[in-house]
Design brief:
4-stranded antiparallel beta sheet, 7-stranded mixed beta sheet, 11 strands, 124 residues
Length: 124
Amino acid sequence: QVQLVESGGGLVQAGGSLTLSCATSPRTFSMYAMGWLRQAPGKEREVVASVNWSGVQKDYADSVKGRFTISRDNAKNTVSLQMKFLKPEDTAVYYCAAALTPGMAKSTTAFPFWGQGTQVTVSA
């Protein structure tokens, strides 16, 4: 069983920054691709950023490219999402997720394991 616990959400003004962190169970963490997904009210869940098992390959949604950075530390079993220049449209519940593949995972269906989510609210 993969356990994922997010932290770091909160309220921030537009243009500000936040960093989300996710702690995972150590047993198999380094075997999985990881991702951050988000869901805004009334919208479908989307993949914001993903990283392969080694941390070398990364992918981002067009809406966050250049503003968000995903990283992972396999020694500490953590994955992070650094968010800069936040916009009100970034407001959502953000979920840390694990895929069943070590390679890149880009669709929501590729991530069967989810954390509880953390709220990010960006005020105008």
